[in-house]
Amino acid sequence: MVFRYVSSDFGNHPLSHLMGSVFGMHNRENVEVFCYALSPNDGTEWRLRIQSEAEHFIDVSSMSSDMIAKMINEDKIQILVNLNGYTKGARNEIFSMQPAPIQISYMGFPGTTGASYIHYLVTDEFVSPLRFSHIYSEKLVHLPHCYFVNDYKQKNLDVLDPNGLPKRSDYGLPEDKFLFACFNQLYKMDPDIFTTWCNILKRVPNSALWLLRFPAAGETRLRAYATQQGVQPDQIIFTDVAMKSEHIRRSALADLFLDTPLCNAHTTGTDVLWAGLPMVTLPLEKMATRVAGSLCLATGVGEEMIVSSLKEYEEKAVSLALNRPKLQELSDKLKAARMTCPLFDTARW
């Protein structure tokens, strides 16, 4: 069987951070793997790794979409995988020419493509339940456990070294406060969830919320909104975005991660769970709203982190913050599961 992966993200991009080992892990006795790079070499270790581990790696960044589709068709490829969907750098016109008999969407875009030329969507039973199959144009391929593969066990083991953990003071974070956190891009937040966070901060004594300048332009507006909701200025803390390994390592400085329901933490969710940081997440209907729940379930302790309403979300966050032994127990279970749970087992995936 021949698999061909098409992506503009073979380089320093979250997709390569997550899937770096996958292309070389296929059983070569049964599967022949080709990677088509839609972007030129960025010179990073991420590009070099995939290029060296994939059985075949072809840079097609200088070719027209017509030429790429023609080449794929002439090679009589069986399965063509779109790792972009509707993301930056995508060239979905290649797939629209239907150069392969089976065309699949995976990983890059967390939702239906709505395209008749994409036949299957690789997902899982929690993220895309059959009861919601009517919102997808593709046939659903359910992987066991979580569809969202990652490479942390291979690339981020150093993060687990307790001797390498930073201190809150390194980032100007308060040592004495209960620290909620959300490291998602700010566009994922809506008034309902931010109001809920403000309610949580008002109910938990000596607490603060740690956000990222992601982008920096959002800081002033969010601070103003929090003030309108009665939150004290020192309860909202912003820091700059950090490099990947530092970002994961410093995530453990927080006490509880608060997810955004309308568009979940995906890569970020995997980051914080690998750091051993529990979260509260509220799955809705669409794929992008359910990914964090799937991540949590694949750790084996997800039932303690998933809620079913915004009110329950608030109550769960408050109750965990006010019951430190219970929160510590959850964190300990999460940390103990990292090396054995399905979420971080790339080879099992």
From TrEMBL:
Is Phosphoprotein one of the keywords? no
Give the top-rank taxon of the lineage listed in the UniProt record for this protein. Answer: Eukaryota
Query: Which Gene3D superfamilies is this protein grouped with?
Result: 3.40.50.11380, Glycogen Phosphorylase B (3.40.50.2000)
The biological pathway it contributes to is: Protein modification; protein glycosylation
Would I find Transcription regulation among this entry's keywords? no
Keywords, in A-Z order:
Repeat, TPR repeat, Transferase
- Xref: Pfam families: Glyco_transf_41
- Alphabetically, which GO biological process terms does the record hold? protein O-linked glycosylation
Which parts of the sequence belong to the O-GlcNAc transferase C-terminal domain?
Answer: 4-154, 167-347
Q: Spell out the molecular function terms from Gene Ontology.
A: glycosyltransferase activity
List the PANTHER family hit by this protein, alphabetically.
Answer: PTHR44998, UDP-N-ACETYLGLUCOSAMINE--PEPTIDE N-ACETYLGLUCOSAMINYLTRANSFERASE 110 KDA SUBUNIT
Q: Which named protein is this? A: O-GlcNAc transferase C-terminal domain-containing protein
**Organism (species):** Gossypium aridum (American cotton)
